[in-house]
Amino acid sequence: MSVRLNLNDRHQDILRATIQHYIATAEPVGSKTLVEEYNFTVSSATIRNALGRLEKAGLLYQPHTSSGRVPSDRGYRTYVEQLITPDEKIGKKVEKYLNEQLNWDTWSFEALLQRATQILANLSGYIALITLPQTRANRLRHLQLVQVSPKQLMLIIVTDSYQTQSILIDTPLSVAENLEENLEGIEEELQILSNFLNSKLRGLSLAELALLNWSELDQEFTQYTNFLKKILGELTRNLQSSLTTPIIVHGVSEMLRQPEFSQLQQVQMLIHLLEEEQDQLLPLVFEISNPEILVQRVTLKIGSENPLESMRPCTLISATYNQKDVPIGSVGIIGPTRMLYENTIPLVESTADYLSDALS
Which one-letter DSSP state was computed for residue 29? Predict the structure, then answer.
């Protein structure tokens, strides 16, 4: 979670102008530029002082001591959360364009997603991603807990296509102590827990699992609340890692013209991720193991907020598309952190909304 900063009006205006100028030019921004190109009624010295304060707050930094300032990842985060309003006209434009360009009567769904991804890449100028929907095989048919050692349990899961997977789980101390107190009834205790899990989880998809809330449990299971949350986390991560859902990608060549990608190594790392490591990229684009993510309409990972090194120069904006209110896929855009956020956010959101409405 980001910390919301209380900036006064002047600091907000100067930070907004600095970031907008840097987004447009990719050049460090100094006080002279802000005085000449923006309608500030204060002196250059006052703006210099404000830029220094914003730098101390971690929102800007100087790449060289003699240069102007550029936004930090934290600066972009503040910009997105406090200083801009996404352009609704852009959202309506992309919905209209998708309606005109996609033929739902004769095209396959994959062909529709391919074309939608191309449109999104062309409109944004960045890399567009759309995941194909989940398959039925991600629904749970049966679960069983088995003790393999005093400190470890195995969770065995069977999907509706009769695929079997097993997950080793470290037993939390509180649960281990409770089982040790009932040595003779360990198998019975685990069977009771297994029956409870089956009653709650059987028939659910991976996306529906992520929406479960264990905060309200029957009294006899309250002592297992944290353990059940841990099982749910392990379960969704394991199933998600086994997904073979391909990601449709367009717009790489356009994005690589951005100055941020002038270094060959950065380009190679990003292309390798998009082409060879989609299994690592998928959990970032379609992050359904975290219920908090699903509550938010659009999610952003800016620069260092991305866990993968190859994504650190980038921002990823994503939104899920749904079928009957259940997330089954995701729409995303990858661009430099120096991104037109007020345009890109509604592009992603409106494309996801369009696909959700079409699937309904």
Answer: B
Helix intervals (H) in the chain? 9-25, 31-37, 44-56, 73-78, 88-101, 109-124, 173-181, 186-201, 206-210, 225-241, 252-255, 264-276, 278-285, 291-295, 341-359
Indicate yes or no: pTM above 0.85: no
Let me know: does 184 contact 190? Beta carbons within 8 Å: no
Q: Assess whether pLDDT exceeds 70 at residue 331.
A: yes
DSSP helix/strand/coil, 169: strand
What's the fold here for domain 136-241? Enolase-like; domain 1 (3.30.390)
* Of 151 and 15, the one with more pLDDT: 15
Q: Give strand pairing partners of 323.
A: 326
Give the residue from 282, 283, 236 showing the smallest Cα distance to 138: 236
Give the Cα separation of 335 and 256 in Å (integer). Answer: 9
Cα–Cα distance, 207 to 291 (Å, whole number): 9
For residue 178 the two structure tokens come to 């409770």
Q: How far, in Å, CA of 144 to CA of 195, rounded? A: 8
User: The CATH number of 88-134+244-359 is which of 3.30.390.10, 3.40.190.10, 3.30.365.10, 3.30.450.40?
Assistant: 3.30.450.40
Quickly name the fold that domain 9-83 has.
Arc Repressor Mutant, subunit A (1.10.10)
β-strand partners of 322: 327
